[in-house]
Design goal:
By secondary structure, the chain is mainly beta. It is 12% helix and 40% strand. The termini are far apart.
Length: 470
Protein backbone atom coordinates (compact mmCIF):
# COMPACT_ATOMS: atom_id res chain seq x y z
CA UNK A 1 0.00 0.00 0.00
CA UNK A 2 2.81 2.42 0.99
CA UNK A 3 4.74 1.56 -2.15
CA UNK A 4 1.69 2.35 -4.25
CA UNK A 5 1.30 5.75 -2.53
CA UNK A 6 5.00 6.54 -3.00
CA UNK A 7 4.79 5.49 -6.63
CA UNK A 8 1.70 7.67 -7.08
CA UNK A 9 3.38 10.69 -5.47
CA UNK A 10 6.46 10.15 -7.62
CA UNK A 11 4.34 10.04 -10.76
CA UNK A 12 2.40 13.10 -9.62
CA UNK A 13 5.53 15.09 -8.85
CA UNK A 14 7.21 14.06 -12.05
CA UNK A 15 4.05 15.06 -13.94
CA UNK A 16 4.05 18.47 -12.26
CA UNK A 17 7.68 18.99 -13.10
CA UNK A 18 7.08 17.98 -16.68
CA UNK A 19 4.06 20.30 -16.89
CA UNK A 20 6.05 23.21 -15.47
CA UNK A 21 8.86 22.57 -17.93
CA UNK A 22 6.40 22.31 -20.81
CA UNK A 23 4.75 25.58 -19.80
CA UNK A 24 8.14 27.26 -19.86
CA UNK A 25 9.10 25.78 -23.21
CA UNK A 26 5.68 26.26 -24.82
CA UNK A 27 5.02 29.87 -23.79
CA UNK A 28 3.39 31.29 -26.92
CA UNK A 29 5.37 33.82 -28.88
CA UNK A 30 4.22 37.09 -30.42
CA UNK A 31 2.66 35.63 -33.57
CA UNK A 32 1.04 32.77 -31.63
CA UNK A 33 -0.57 35.30 -29.26
CA UNK A 34 -1.71 37.37 -32.23
CA UNK A 35 -3.28 34.33 -33.92
CA UNK A 36 -4.87 33.23 -30.63
CA UNK A 37 -6.69 36.57 -30.41
CA UNK A 38 -8.35 36.01 -33.79
CA UNK A 39 -9.28 32.42 -32.95
CA UNK A 40 -10.93 33.55 -29.71
CA UNK A 41 -12.58 36.52 -31.40
CA UNK A 42 -14.15 34.47 -34.17
CA UNK A 43 -15.53 31.97 -31.62
CA UNK A 44 -16.88 34.46 -29.05
CA UNK A 45 -18.92 37.63 -29.19
CA UNK A 46 -16.43 39.92 -27.47
CA UNK A 47 -12.68 39.38 -27.01
CA UNK A 48 -11.08 40.58 -23.82
CA UNK A 49 -7.59 41.68 -22.87
CA UNK A 50 -5.22 39.05 -21.54
CA UNK A 51 -5.32 40.49 -18.01
CA UNK A 52 -9.05 41.30 -17.97
CA UNK A 53 -9.83 38.44 -15.59
CA UNK A 54 -7.77 40.18 -12.91
CA UNK A 55 -9.75 43.43 -13.17
CA UNK A 56 -12.18 44.31 -10.42
CA UNK A 57 -15.37 46.28 -10.68
CA UNK A 58 -13.51 49.32 -9.35
CA UNK A 59 -11.04 49.12 -12.24
CA UNK A 60 -13.72 49.35 -14.93
CA UNK A 61 -14.61 52.91 -15.93
CA UNK A 62 -18.27 53.63 -16.57
CA UNK A 63 -19.42 56.07 -19.23
CA UNK A 64 -20.61 59.44 -17.97
CA UNK A 65 -23.78 61.00 -19.31
CA UNK A 66 -26.37 59.50 -21.61
CA UNK A 67 -26.49 55.83 -22.54
CA UNK A 68 -25.24 54.76 -25.98
CA UNK A 69 -28.15 54.36 -28.42
CA UNK A 70 -26.59 51.72 -30.73
CA UNK A 71 -24.56 48.52 -30.66
CA UNK A 72 -21.02 48.58 -32.04
CA UNK A 73 -20.36 46.16 -33.63
CA UNK A 74 -22.24 45.80 -35.83
CA UNK A 75 -22.64 49.57 -36.41
CA UNK A 76 -19.60 51.82 -36.85
CA UNK A 77 -20.26 53.69 -33.58
CA UNK A 78 -22.37 53.12 -30.49
CA UNK A 79 -23.02 56.88 -30.14
CA UNK A 80 -24.41 59.72 -32.22
CA UNK A 81 -20.93 60.90 -33.01
CA UNK A 82 -19.50 64.38 -33.47
CA UNK A 83 -16.22 65.19 -35.19
CA UNK A 84 -12.97 66.62 -33.93
CA UNK A 85 -12.89 64.96 -30.49
CA UNK A 86 -13.22 61.64 -28.69
CA UNK A 87 -16.63 61.20 -27.07
CA UNK A 88 -16.26 63.09 -23.78
CA UNK A 89 -17.12 60.91 -20.79
CA UNK A 90 -16.65 57.62 -22.65
CA UNK A 91 -13.91 55.22 -21.48
CA UNK A 92 -11.43 53.68 -23.89
CA UNK A 93 -12.49 50.05 -23.75
CA UNK A 94 -11.04 49.09 -27.13
CA UNK A 95 -9.00 45.89 -27.28
CA UNK A 96 -6.91 45.29 -30.41
CA UNK A 97 -5.27 42.10 -31.70
CA UNK A 98 -1.81 43.65 -32.21
CA UNK A 99 -1.63 45.24 -28.75
CA UNK A 100 -2.86 42.03 -27.12
CA UNK A 101 0.02 40.21 -28.78
CA UNK A 102 2.51 42.94 -27.82
CA UNK A 103 1.73 43.44 -24.13
CA UNK A 104 -1.65 41.92 -23.28
CA UNK A 105 -3.41 45.20 -24.15
CA UNK A 106 -2.17 46.77 -20.91
CA UNK A 107 -0.96 50.15 -22.19
CA UNK A 108 -2.94 53.32 -22.89
CA UNK A 109 -0.86 54.01 -25.99
CA UNK A 110 -2.16 51.67 -28.67
CA UNK A 111 -0.92 50.64 -32.10
CA UNK A 112 -3.60 49.26 -34.40
CA UNK A 113 -5.11 49.57 -37.86
CA UNK A 114 -6.70 47.72 -40.74
CA UNK A 115 -6.30 46.57 -44.32
CA UNK A 116 -9.15 47.00 -46.81
CA UNK A 117 -9.06 45.29 -50.22
CA UNK A 118 -12.09 45.72 -52.48
CA UNK A 119 -13.40 44.76 -55.90
CA UNK A 120 -16.13 46.28 -58.05
CA UNK A 121 -17.95 45.49 -61.28
CA UNK A 122 -19.47 48.42 -63.15
CA UNK A 123 -21.38 49.27 -66.31
CA UNK A 124 -18.77 52.01 -66.79
CA UNK A 125 -15.56 50.99 -68.53
CA UNK A 126 -12.93 53.31 -67.07
CA UNK A 127 -14.15 55.53 -64.21
CA UNK A 128 -17.00 55.26 -61.71
CA UNK A 129 -16.43 58.85 -60.51
CA UNK A 130 -18.23 60.84 -59.07
CA UNK A 131 -18.86 57.59 -57.19
CA UNK A 132 -16.34 57.37 -54.37
CA UNK A 133 -14.12 55.64 -53.19
CA UNK A 134 -14.09 52.97 -55.90
CA UNK A 135 -13.55 55.49 -58.70
CA UNK A 136 -11.76 52.96 -60.96
CA UNK A 137 -14.18 50.68 -62.82
CA UNK A 138 -13.98 46.87 -62.75
CA UNK A 139 -10.88 46.64 -60.57
CA UNK A 140 -9.52 44.78 -57.56
CA UNK A 141 -7.72 47.35 -55.41
CA UNK A 142 -6.19 48.02 -52.04
CA UNK A 143 -8.41 50.84 -50.83
CA UNK A 144 -6.74 51.41 -47.46
CA UNK A 145 -3.84 50.07 -45.41
CA UNK A 146 -3.79 52.12 -42.21
CA UNK A 147 -1.62 52.15 -39.10
CA UNK A 148 -2.60 54.19 -36.01
CA UNK A 149 -0.53 55.13 -32.99
CA UNK A 150 -2.95 56.58 -30.47
CA UNK A 151 -3.44 57.56 -26.85
CA UNK A 152 -6.91 58.73 -25.84
CA UNK A 153 -7.27 61.22 -22.99
CA UNK A 154 -9.16 59.91 -19.97
CA UNK A 155 -12.30 62.04 -20.12
CA UNK A 156 -14.31 59.92 -17.69
CA UNK A 157 -12.49 61.26 -14.63
CA UNK A 158 -13.05 64.85 -13.44
CA UNK A 159 -9.94 65.25 -11.27
CA UNK A 160 -7.00 66.22 -13.50
CA UNK A 161 -5.96 67.42 -16.92
CA UNK A 162 -5.07 64.58 -19.28
CA UNK A 163 -3.71 64.34 -22.79
CA UNK A 164 -3.81 62.16 -25.87
CA UNK A 165 -2.32 62.08 -29.34
CA UNK A 166 -2.84 60.43 -32.70
CA UNK A 167 -0.47 59.58 -35.58
CA UNK A 168 -1.54 57.94 -38.84
CA UNK A 169 0.15 56.22 -41.78
CA UNK A 170 -2.35 55.80 -44.63
CA UNK A 171 -1.74 54.08 -47.99
CA UNK A 172 -4.09 53.06 -50.80
CA UNK A 173 -6.26 54.38 -53.60
CA UNK A 174 -8.41 56.23 -51.05
CA UNK A 175 -5.62 58.77 -50.47
CA UNK A 176 -7.43 60.71 -53.19
CA UNK A 177 -10.17 61.42 -50.63
CA UNK A 178 -7.75 62.59 -47.94
CA UNK A 179 -5.20 64.67 -49.90
CA UNK A 180 -4.47 67.99 -48.24
CA UNK A 181 -2.41 70.54 -50.20
CA UNK A 182 1.00 70.80 -48.55
CA UNK A 183 1.04 67.25 -47.12
CA UNK A 184 2.61 65.03 -49.84
CA UNK A 185 -0.07 66.40 -52.18
CA UNK A 186 1.98 66.42 -55.40
CA UNK A 187 1.41 62.67 -55.83
CA UNK A 188 -2.22 63.49 -56.68
CA UNK A 189 -2.22 67.13 -57.79
CA UNK A 190 0.85 66.88 -60.05
CA UNK A 191 1.05 63.16 -60.90
CA UNK A 192 -2.50 61.77 -60.45
CA UNK A 193 -1.15 58.48 -59.09
CA UNK A 194 -3.53 55.61 -58.47
CA UNK A 195 -1.94 54.75 -55.10
CA UNK A 196 -0.58 57.19 -52.58
CA UNK A 197 0.49 57.78 -48.96
CA UNK A 198 -0.95 60.39 -46.62
CA UNK A 199 -0.43 61.16 -42.90
CA UNK A 200 -4.15 61.83 -42.59
CA UNK A 201 -4.50 62.45 -38.85
CA UNK A 202 -1.75 64.07 -36.80
CA UNK A 203 -2.95 65.83 -33.66
CA UNK A 204 -2.72 66.30 -29.89
CA UNK A 205 -5.71 66.25 -27.52
CA UNK A 206 -5.74 67.97 -24.12
CA UNK A 207 -8.67 67.28 -21.80
CA UNK A 208 -9.72 69.86 -19.19
CA UNK A 209 -12.11 68.25 -16.68
CA UNK A 210 -13.25 71.42 -14.88
CA UNK A 211 -14.62 73.29 -17.90
CA UNK A 212 -18.37 72.61 -17.90
CA UNK A 213 -18.66 68.79 -17.89
CA UNK A 214 -15.34 68.42 -19.66
CA UNK A 215 -13.56 70.09 -22.58
CA UNK A 216 -11.24 68.57 -25.16
CA UNK A 217 -8.90 70.81 -27.16
CA UNK A 218 -7.50 69.29 -30.35
CA UNK A 219 -4.58 70.85 -32.24
CA UNK A 220 -3.21 69.49 -35.52
CA UNK A 221 -4.66 67.90 -38.63
CA UNK A 222 -8.03 66.15 -38.26
CA UNK A 223 -11.06 65.04 -40.26
CA UNK A 224 -13.40 67.88 -41.25
CA UNK A 225 -15.86 67.85 -38.38
CA UNK A 226 -19.45 67.69 -39.76
CA UNK A 227 -21.21 64.76 -41.30
CA UNK A 228 -22.24 61.12 -41.14
CA UNK A 229 -19.34 59.72 -43.20
CA UNK A 230 -15.58 59.90 -42.79
CA UNK A 231 -12.47 59.05 -44.78
CA UNK A 232 -11.43 56.15 -42.53
CA UNK A 233 -13.44 53.16 -43.72
CA UNK A 234 -14.43 51.57 -40.35
CA UNK A 235 -16.33 54.78 -39.52
CA UNK A 236 -18.88 54.27 -42.31
CA UNK A 237 -22.08 52.29 -42.76
CA UNK A 238 -21.10 51.18 -46.29
CA UNK A 239 -18.08 50.59 -48.50
CA UNK A 240 -18.87 53.27 -51.09
CA UNK A 241 -19.60 56.86 -50.18
CA UNK A 242 -22.48 59.19 -50.92
CA UNK A 243 -22.30 61.88 -53.58
CA UNK A 244 -22.69 64.37 -50.73
CA UNK A 245 -19.49 63.08 -49.14
CA UNK A 246 -17.56 62.81 -52.43
CA UNK A 247 -17.30 66.58 -52.92
CA UNK A 248 -17.21 68.02 -49.39
CA UNK A 249 -14.08 69.00 -47.37
CA UNK A 250 -11.82 66.19 -46.24
CA UNK A 251 -9.34 67.32 -43.57
CA UNK A 252 -8.54 70.54 -41.71
CA UNK A 253 -5.48 71.76 -39.83
CA UNK A 254 -6.22 73.93 -36.83
CA UNK A 255 -7.35 74.09 -33.20
CA UNK A 256 -10.80 72.96 -32.04
CA UNK A 257 -12.38 73.08 -28.56
CA UNK A 258 -15.18 70.58 -27.82
CA UNK A 259 -17.16 71.36 -24.66
CA UNK A 260 -19.62 69.01 -22.95
CA UNK A 261 -22.05 71.71 -21.86
CA UNK A 262 -24.50 69.18 -20.38
CA UNK A 263 -25.32 65.52 -20.74
CA UNK A 264 -27.40 66.42 -23.79
CA UNK A 265 -25.46 69.29 -25.40
CA UNK A 266 -21.98 69.61 -26.91
CA UNK A 267 -20.59 72.90 -28.29
CA UNK A 268 -17.57 73.21 -30.57
CA UNK A 269 -15.58 76.25 -31.67
CA UNK A 270 -12.25 76.53 -33.44
CA UNK A 271 -10.13 77.97 -36.20
CA UNK A 272 -8.50 76.22 -39.14
CA UNK A 273 -6.27 77.13 -42.08
CA UNK A 274 -9.27 76.52 -44.40
CA UNK A 275 -10.17 73.16 -45.91
CA UNK A 276 -7.65 70.68 -47.29
CA UNK A 277 -4.65 73.02 -47.14
CA UNK A 278 -1.66 73.13 -44.81
CA UNK A 279 -1.09 76.41 -42.90
CA UNK A 280 2.15 77.06 -44.80
CA UNK A 281 0.50 77.10 -48.26
CA UNK A 282 -0.53 80.25 -50.12
CA UNK A 283 -4.18 79.09 -50.05
CA UNK A 284 -4.37 79.06 -46.25
CA UNK A 285 -6.49 81.66 -44.46
CA UNK A 286 -7.97 81.76 -40.93
CA UNK A 287 -11.39 80.07 -40.99
CA UNK A 288 -14.08 79.68 -38.34
CA UNK A 289 -15.48 76.33 -37.22
CA UNK A 290 -18.51 76.11 -34.95
CA UNK A 291 -20.93 73.26 -34.17
CA UNK A 292 -23.72 72.44 -31.74
CA UNK A 293 -24.86 68.89 -30.96
CA UNK A 294 -28.05 68.16 -29.02
CA UNK A 295 -29.32 64.71 -27.98
CA UNK A 296 -32.73 64.09 -26.44
CA UNK A 297 -32.88 62.38 -23.04
CA UNK A 298 -34.34 59.27 -24.67
CA UNK A 299 -31.26 59.23 -27.01
CA UNK A 300 -33.73 58.58 -29.83
CA UNK A 301 -32.77 61.83 -31.59
CA UNK A 302 -29.63 63.84 -32.17
CA UNK A 303 -29.25 67.13 -34.04
CA UNK A 304 -25.80 68.31 -35.14
CA UNK A 305 -25.46 71.76 -36.76
CA UNK A 306 -22.17 73.13 -38.10
CA UNK A 307 -20.72 76.20 -39.81
CA UNK A 308 -17.45 74.92 -41.20
CA UNK A 309 -14.47 76.72 -42.75
CA UNK A 310 -16.07 80.16 -42.77
CA UNK A 311 -14.00 83.07 -44.13
CA UNK A 312 -14.43 85.53 -47.01
CA UNK A 313 -15.23 82.60 -49.33
CA UNK A 314 -12.99 83.77 -52.16
CA UNK A 315 -11.88 81.03 -54.55
CA UNK A 316 -8.85 79.02 -53.42
CA UNK A 317 -7.97 75.35 -53.07
CA UNK A 318 -11.19 73.82 -51.61
CA UNK A 319 -12.05 77.03 -49.77
CA UNK A 320 -15.64 75.87 -49.30
CA UNK A 321 -18.04 77.78 -47.09
CA UNK A 322 -20.01 74.91 -45.58
CA UNK A 323 -23.24 74.92 -43.55
CA UNK A 324 -24.22 71.40 -42.49
CA UNK A 325 -27.09 69.80 -40.56
CA UNK A 326 -27.29 66.15 -39.45
CA UNK A 327 -30.22 64.38 -37.81
CA UNK A 328 -30.02 60.90 -36.28
CA UNK A 329 -33.24 59.15 -35.27
CA UNK A 330 -33.74 55.78 -33.58
CA UNK A 331 -37.08 54.10 -34.30
CA UNK A 332 -36.44 51.20 -31.92
CA UNK A 333 -33.73 48.86 -30.71
CA UNK A 334 -32.87 47.62 -34.20
CA UNK A 335 -33.93 50.45 -36.57
CA UNK A 336 -32.42 53.89 -37.00
CA UNK A 337 -31.76 56.45 -39.70
CA UNK A 338 -29.18 59.15 -40.34
CA UNK A 339 -29.92 62.21 -42.50
CA UNK A 340 -27.57 64.98 -43.56
CA UNK A 341 -27.94 68.12 -45.70
CA UNK A 342 -25.50 70.89 -46.54
CA UNK A 343 -25.09 73.99 -48.65
CA UNK A 344 -21.62 75.09 -49.80
CA UNK A 345 -20.18 77.77 -52.05
CA UNK A 346 -17.10 79.66 -53.18
CA UNK A 347 -16.99 83.20 -54.53
CA UNK A 348 -15.08 84.51 -57.54
CA UNK A 349 -14.49 81.05 -59.06
CA UNK A 350 -12.82 81.28 -62.51
CA UNK A 351 -15.02 80.35 -65.44
CA UNK A 352 -14.30 77.26 -67.55
CA UNK A 353 -15.69 79.18 -70.53
CA UNK A 354 -14.10 81.94 -72.56
CA UNK A 355 -10.42 82.81 -72.95
CA UNK A 356 -9.35 84.34 -69.63
CA UNK A 357 -11.14 82.17 -67.02
CA UNK A 358 -9.56 78.76 -67.70
CA UNK A 359 -6.08 80.19 -67.22
CA UNK A 360 -6.99 81.26 -63.67
CA UNK A 361 -8.04 77.79 -62.45
CA UNK A 362 -5.71 76.40 -59.79
CA UNK A 363 -4.27 72.93 -60.38
CA UNK A 364 -6.20 70.28 -58.47
CA UNK A 365 -9.47 72.23 -58.56
CA UNK A 366 -12.34 72.80 -60.99
CA UNK A 367 -13.60 76.04 -62.44
CA UNK A 368 -17.26 77.01 -62.70
CA UNK A 369 -19.73 77.02 -65.58
CA UNK A 370 -20.32 80.76 -65.38
CA UNK A 371 -22.65 82.74 -67.62
CA UNK A 372 -21.33 83.86 -70.98
CA UNK A 373 -19.06 86.85 -70.58
CA UNK A 374 -18.31 86.23 -66.87
CA UNK A 375 -14.66 85.64 -65.99
CA UNK A 376 -15.54 84.66 -62.38
CA UNK A 377 -18.77 83.81 -60.59
CA UNK A 378 -20.37 82.39 -57.45
CA UNK A 379 -20.33 78.56 -57.45
CA UNK A 380 -22.87 77.01 -55.04
CA UNK A 381 -23.88 73.40 -54.44
CA UNK A 382 -26.19 71.59 -52.08
CA UNK A 383 -26.72 67.94 -51.21
CA UNK A 384 -28.77 65.61 -49.02
CA UNK A 385 -28.34 61.99 -47.99
CA UNK A 386 -30.38 59.54 -45.91
CA UNK A 387 -29.38 56.17 -44.44
CA UNK A 388 -31.95 53.69 -43.13
CA UNK A 389 -30.30 50.95 -41.06
CA UNK A 390 -31.69 47.69 -39.70
CA UNK A 391 -29.72 45.53 -37.26
CA UNK A 392 -30.31 41.84 -38.01
CA UNK A 393 -28.06 40.30 -35.36
CA UNK A 394 -25.05 41.24 -33.20
CA UNK A 395 -22.93 40.70 -36.33
CA UNK A 396 -25.19 41.91 -39.18
CA UNK A 397 -27.08 44.92 -40.44
CA UNK A 398 -28.67 46.15 -43.66
CA UNK A 399 -28.42 49.74 -44.95
CA UNK A 400 -30.21 51.62 -47.70
CA UNK A 401 -28.86 54.98 -48.80
CA UNK A 402 -30.62 57.58 -50.96
CA UNK A 403 -28.60 60.56 -52.05
CA UNK A 404 -28.90 63.76 -54.12
CA UNK A 405 -26.33 66.37 -55.19
CA UNK A 406 -26.93 69.58 -57.14
CA UNK A 407 -23.56 70.83 -58.32
CA UNK A 408 -25.05 73.97 -59.84
CA UNK A 409 -21.91 75.31 -61.56
CA UNK A 410 -19.95 72.03 -61.70
CA UNK A 411 -17.20 73.35 -59.45
CA UNK A 412 -17.11 70.21 -57.30
CA UNK A 413 -17.49 67.36 -59.83
CA UNK A 414 -16.47 69.10 -63.05
CA UNK A 415 -20.02 68.60 -64.44
CA UNK A 416 -22.76 71.15 -63.77
CA UNK A 417 -26.04 69.49 -62.88
CA UNK A 418 -27.98 67.19 -60.61
CA UNK A 419 -26.94 63.66 -59.56
CA UNK A 420 -28.64 60.98 -57.48
CA UNK A 421 -27.87 57.46 -56.29
CA UNK A 422 -29.38 54.61 -54.30
CA UNK A 423 -27.34 51.89 -52.58
CA UNK A 424 -28.30 48.70 -50.74
CA UNK A 425 -25.62 47.21 -48.49
CA UNK A 426 -25.24 44.28 -46.10
CA UNK A 427 -22.56 44.32 -43.42
CA UNK A 428 -21.39 41.15 -41.67
CA UNK A 429 -18.80 40.88 -38.89
CA UNK A 430 -16.65 37.83 -38.20
CA UNK A 431 -16.14 38.36 -34.49
CA UNK A 432 -15.14 42.00 -34.00
CA UNK A 433 -12.10 42.01 -36.29
CA UNK A 434 -13.18 41.22 -39.88
CA UNK A 435 -16.00 43.02 -41.67
CA UNK A 436 -17.52 42.10 -45.05
CA UNK A 437 -19.62 44.72 -46.90
CA UNK A 438 -21.19 43.77 -50.27
CA UNK A 439 -23.39 46.38 -51.96
CA UNK A 440 -25.45 47.18 -55.07
CA UNK A 441 -25.60 50.78 -56.31
CA UNK A 442 -27.34 52.74 -59.08
CA UNK A 443 -26.34 56.31 -60.07
CA UNK A 444 -28.12 58.72 -62.40
CA UNK A 445 -27.08 62.10 -63.85
CA UNK A 446 -30.17 64.20 -64.56
CA UNK A 447 -28.80 66.98 -66.77
CA UNK A 448 -25.78 65.72 -68.71
CA UNK A 449 -23.46 62.76 -69.14
CA UNK A 450 -21.28 62.71 -66.06
CA UNK A 451 -20.15 59.16 -65.29
CA UNK A 452 -17.30 57.27 -66.97
CA UNK A 453 -15.41 60.45 -67.93
CA UNK A 454 -18.56 62.23 -69.08
CA UNK A 455 -19.87 59.48 -71.37
CA UNK A 456 -22.80 58.04 -69.36
CA UNK A 457 -25.89 59.26 -67.54
CA UNK A 458 -26.55 55.95 -65.74
CA UNK A 459 -24.21 53.66 -63.85
CA UNK A 460 -24.75 50.38 -62.01
CA UNK A 461 -22.07 48.96 -59.72
CA UNK A 462 -21.74 45.85 -57.59
CA UNK A 463 -18.91 45.95 -55.08
CA UNK A 464 -17.58 44.33 -51.92
CA UNK A 465 -14.81 45.17 -49.49
CA UNK A 466 -13.23 43.31 -46.57
CA UNK A 467 -11.91 45.24 -43.57
CA UNK A 468 -9.32 43.24 -41.62
CA UNK A 469 -8.52 44.87 -38.26
CA UNK A 470 -5.26 44.26 -36.44
Amino acid sequence: MVSKVVLGLALCCSGMAYGQQAATVDTPGFFARWAAFYRADWKTAAPVAADASAATAADVEVKRGLASPLSSPPFPSADWSYGGSPVIGEPDGNVYPLMTAVNGAKSRTKVYGWVEPAVNGSTSRDRNYPETNDIYSNRFELQQAVLYVERLPDSVQRQHVDFGFHLTAFFGTDYRSTTNKGYFSSQLIDHNRQYGFDPVLEYVDVYFPHVAKGMNVRAGRFISIPGIEAQLTPNNYMFSHSLLYAVDPFTDTGVLATIQVSDQMVAQVGVSASHDVAPWTADAKPSFMGCLSYTTKSVDNNFYLCANGINDGTYAFNNLQMYDATWYHRFGKTWHMATEMYGMYQREVPSVNGVVGPGLIEKGTNGANCRAGEVRCLAPEWAAVNYVNKQLSPHDYLSFRSDFLNDKKGQRTGYAGKLSEGTLSWSHWFGSTVQLRPELRFDHAWDRRTYDNGTRTNQFTAAVDVVYHF
